[in-house]
Amino acid sequence: MTANSPRDRFTTGDKVCVLTMNPPGHIRTPRYIMGLAGEIVHDLGEFPNPEELAYGRSGIPKKRLYRARFRQKDIWPGYAGAAEDTLEIELYEHWLTSAADPAASL
């Protein structure tokens, strides 16, 4: 993980893992991507937390949103497409952990 400032947790090129969590309520992370490793391709900035907004709350504190790239063959068992096929998905910072962090729990 390469931090540019206290507000920037990940930067382009960082390897990340999507946490596997089962919190109750409204979540914005697709289950099919949980537990997988990918790479940050873009920092989209901070936005109100949509999980809080879904309950009519303020969405504060804001959460940083990233676009991450994943290999299709890692997502879909038996994927028969080209090895270089990828999927990009937008994920909030609280669903990501550094893939370089040996203490990361997935």
Textual characterization of the structure:
The protein has 106 residues and is mainly beta. The protein has one domain (15-98): SH3 type barrels, CATH 2.30.30. It has 2 helices and 5 strands, in the order ββαβαββ. The chain has helices spanning 50-53, 72-75, and strands spanning 15-18, 37-47, 63-71, 86-92, 96-98. Strands 4-3-2-1-5 form a 5-stranded antiparallel beta sheet. The chain is globular.
Question: What attributes characterize this protein structure?
Answer:
106 residues, SH3 type barrels, five-stranded antiparallel beta sheet, 5 strands, 8% helix, 2 helices, 32% strand
Which class of secondary structure composition applies to the elements?
A: mainly beta
Q: Order of strands across the widest beta sheet? A: 4-3-2-1-5
Q: How many helical elements?
A: 2
- Secondary structure tally: strands: 5
Q: Estimate the strand proportion.
A: 25-35%
Number of domains: 1
Q: What is the CATH topology classification name? A: SH3 type barrels
What's the average pLDDT? 87
Rg over CA atoms, rounded to whole Å, is 14 Å
Shape: globular
Name of the CATH class:
Mainly Beta
